[in-house]
């Protein structure tokens, strides 16, 4: 099930988003319960998972550990695009009332 990932404000308005039409994230995200990932192992492919700016540094570190593949341009594009959203959240470019939502199907 493909995820849509977006920054949203407190009212739920989408500020910017990334779509994963080829379902790259289902192949690269850790399994639920994987203790090596405190944030990424909680992303629900069928529901919504929300992170705030306080979680962003840990989320960024975990995201950067995901492997990229030079043979898969879709994978590289999705990973880089989501990394950009995570860094925007970490930089608090939009203020503390902004959240990163992974929206499952």
Task: State the total count of DSSP E strands.
Answer: 4
What is Rg? 13 Å
> Which geometry do the CA atoms define?
globular
> How would a crystallographer describe the biggest sheet?
4 strands, antiparallel
One letter per element, helices H and strands E, the order comes to EEHEHHE
Could you name the ranges where pLDDT drops below 50 across 5 or more consecutive residues?
Answer: none
Give the fraction of residues assigned to helices: 25-40%
> How big a fraction of the residues is strand?
15-25%
Structural class: alpha+beta
Helix/strand layout:
Layout: E1 4-9, E2 14-19, H1 24-28, E3 48-51, H2 56-64, H3 73-90, E4 98-103
Antiparallel strand pairs: 1-2, 1-4, 3-4
Quickly describe the structure.
It is built from 3 helices and 4 strands.
Could you characterize the architecture of this molecule?
It is a single chain. The chain is of the alpha+beta class and 105 residues long. The protein has one domain (4-103). It has 3 helices and 4 strands; from the N terminus they run ββαβααβ. It has helices at residues 24-28, 56-64, 73-90, and strands at 4-9, 14-19, 48-51, 98-103. A 4-stranded antiparallel sheet has the order 2-1-4-3, covered by helices on one side. The chain is globular, with a radius of gyration of 13 Å. The N and C termini lie close together (6 Å). The mean pLDDT is 90.
């Amino acid at each position: 099930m493909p995820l849509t990932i977006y920054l949203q404000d407190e009212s739920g308005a989408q500020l910017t988003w990334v779509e994963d039409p080829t379902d790259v994230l289902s192949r690269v995200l850790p399994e639920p319960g994987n203790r090596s990932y405190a944030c990424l192992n909680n992303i629900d492919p069928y529901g919504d998972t929300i992170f705030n700016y306080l979680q962003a540094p840990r989320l960024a570190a975990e995201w950067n550990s995901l492997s990229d593949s030079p043979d898969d341009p879709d994978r590289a594009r999705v990973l880089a695009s989501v990394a950009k959203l995570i860094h925007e959240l970490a930089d608090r470019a939009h203020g503390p009332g902004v959240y990163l939502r992974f929206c499952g199907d």
